[in-house]
């Protein structure tokens, strides 16, 4: 397991310090602090917390059954944590800057939900019909809330441009919103130059940053409801419908999966942000540049199986 030990060492030494909200006085107890933090401050604090040491004071994750199988994971970068504590289970190249593919749409979605009006009408016009690789077509018209659902479930690149233009006024302004929110969340290895994550030298992120983003977004109930929907009939303004199936196959093939987002381009490889809950334990995983669309799912299952074994042993030793 030299590979994973070296990866862990690099992560611990090379990670940029997590942006944390300051404590409101060192003499205050945890209950007092929580009472004085706003809901948004608590959300940010929970989403950005990554504890690299807690697990390793109790057990060595490289000693757990199944760890040898991690050598078979083709993904170039990944990070796996327990959500309630932010406890790092294991990782590989977690802070390396890479293409995010459609995991960038997590940011597009949360900003659209916060700043858009669900009942607004959005038309697919020439200036947003750019990639032409998904279900929306030139001239199609949707309510914004429905278009957001279609964008997320279908991972529709042109829908992302239409949403961004409508919410931000233009895509450049919307990308500034994306980058401002990334800075707010301490996503120091991230920059967005488009709203859909298509390959661009100025669009990059890291597994660690995207993990923070996924946890932040999933603490919005509307976002969580959308990404946890396996399939949906999306209405259009003219009365037609699009029948959409979620591109995240783990929702229906892996027990306890309830999100989050897929991504794939030739340059980015198979990407996946996933959340799974079993027996009161919630794990989050972000994987970048798996070798194919299908391997991102099989490799995520392998990592989750390992992660739940680690947490079972951890709870046993902690008593």
Task: Describe the 3D structure.
With 319 residues, the chain is an alpha+beta fold. The protein contains eleven helices and nine strands. A five-stranded antiparallel beta sheet has the order 2-1-9-8-7, sandwiched between helices. A two-stranded antiparallel ribbon has the order 3-4. Strand 1 and strand 2 form a beta hairpin. The radius of gyration is 20 Å and the shape is globular. The two termini are 27 Å apart. Mean pLDDT is 91; it is low at 1-28.
Shape: globular
User: Using only CA atoms, what is the Rg?
Assistant: 20 Å
Strand content: 15-25%
Structural class: alpha+beta
Number of helices: 11
Lateral arrangement of strands in the main beta sheet: 2-1-9-8-7
| Largest β sheet strand count, sense and barrel closure | 5 strands, antiparallel
Average residue pLDDT = 91
Low-confidence stretches: 1-28
N- to C-terminal distance: 27 Å
Following the backbone from N to C, one meets helices and strands in this order, namely HHHEEHEEHHHHHEEHEEEH
Question: How much helicity do the residues have?
Answer: 25-40%
Question: What's the β-strand tally?
Answer: 9
């Amino acid at each position: 397991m030299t590979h994973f030990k070296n990866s862990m060492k690099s992560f611990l030494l090379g990670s940029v310090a997590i942006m944390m909200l300051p404590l409101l006085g060192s003499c205050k107890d945890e209950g007092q602090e929580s009472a004085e933090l706003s809901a948004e401050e608590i959300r940010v604090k929970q989403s950005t917390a990554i504890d690299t040491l807690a697990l390793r004071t109790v057990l060595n994750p490289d000693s757990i059954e199944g760890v040898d199988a991690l050598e078979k994971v083709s993904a170039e970068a990944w990070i796996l944590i327990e959500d309630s504590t932010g406890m790092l289970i294991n990782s590989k190249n977690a802070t390396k800057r890479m293409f995010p593919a459609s995991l960038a749409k997590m940011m597009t979605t949360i900003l659209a939900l916060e700043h858009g009006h669900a009942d607004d009408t959005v038309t697919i016009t020439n200036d947003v019909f750019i990639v032409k690789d998904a279900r929306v077509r030139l001239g199609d018209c949707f309510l914004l809330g429905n278009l957001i659902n279609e964008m997320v479930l279908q991972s529709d690149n042109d829908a992302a441009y239409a949403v961004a233009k409508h919410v931000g006024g233009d895509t450049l302004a919307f990308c500034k919103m994306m980058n401002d929110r990334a800075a707010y969340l301490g996503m120091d290895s991230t920059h967005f130059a488009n709203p859909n994550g298509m390959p661009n030298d100025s669009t990059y992120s890291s597994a660690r940053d995207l993990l923070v983003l996924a946890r932040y977004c999933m603490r919005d109930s509307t976002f969580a409801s959308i990404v946890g929907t396996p399939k949906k009939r999306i209405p259009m303004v003219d009365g037609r419908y699009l029948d959409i199936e979620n591109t995240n196959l783990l929702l229906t093939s892996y027990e306890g999966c309830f999100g989050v987002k897929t991504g794939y381009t030739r340059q980015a490889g198979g990407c996946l942000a996933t959340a799974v809950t079993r027996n009161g334990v919630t794990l989050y995983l972000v994987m970048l540049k798996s070798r194919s669309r299908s391997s991102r799912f099989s490799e995520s299952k392998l990592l989750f199986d390992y992660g739940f074994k680690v947490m079972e042993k951890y709870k046993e030793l902690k008593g």
